[in-house]
Write a structure and sequence with these properties.
mainly beta
């Protein structure tokens, strides 16, 4: 039986949900490199981070801060550490007015696994686009499908070249659903 994987994202349709803002460093300045939590490698920043609430509302167990940085409640972090300890790092954050512990969920692996043929549409950067450093990398991926045989034993990862997606294994998806984690949305890839 082929392993199944899912793109995990925030349920933006959750009624009355909060909206989290741009991560701040310990001095209250916006992080210089917020993208470091979306590339599939260990983060360079090890200091405590503060996340402001841009719009008050119902706290979610899984949310995105600005730049689609995954933020998880401590109980969700415990699930990830239990089921995928070698695939994630958890960076403690303080969320304004929230006494409970939250973390940035950073996937530390990237896998070259996008199946171009099975995906609805993929487009690559070309020389004509005028960005030589991006030539040959993904410009757009619609209806993404992955080749599970190229994932290895990872349960959480970012697809190489399309790191906007956070991919989780089916067993992790099921564990999150059984735990009643709020704020999640899954799409099979």
């Amino acid at each position: 039986m082929t392993a199944r994987y899912f793109d995990l994202s925030e349920d933006v349709y959750a009624p009355g949900r909060w909206t989290l803002g741009h991560p701040l460093d310990s001095s209250g300045h916006q992080l210089q490199d917020p993208w470091q939590f979306r590339v599939g490698t260990p983060a360079l920043l090890k200091e405590r981070v503060r996340i402001p609430i841009d719009h008050a509302g119902r706290p979610l167990d899984f949310s995105h801060a600005a730049f689609s940085i995954p933020i998880v409640h401590a109980r969700v972090a415990a699930l990830f550490i239990s089921l995928a300890p070698h695939d994630v790092e958890l960076i403690p954050v303080d969320i304004d007015s929230q006494p409970e512990q939250h973390f940035i969920l950073n996937a530390v692996h990237s896998r070259r696994c996008i199946d171009d043929e099975a995906s609805a549409e993929v487009q690559y950067w070309t020389e004509e686009d005028g960005l030589p450093e991006k030539v040959g990398t993904y410009f757009s991926v619609s209806g993404m499908r992955i080749d599970p045989t190229k994932v290895g034993n990872a349960r959480v990862f970012r697809p190489w070249g399309w790191t906007v997606a956070l991919i989780v294994s089916e067993d992790l998806k099921q564990a999150l659903e059984r735990a009643g984690v709020t704020g999640t949305s899954f799409k099979e890839v």
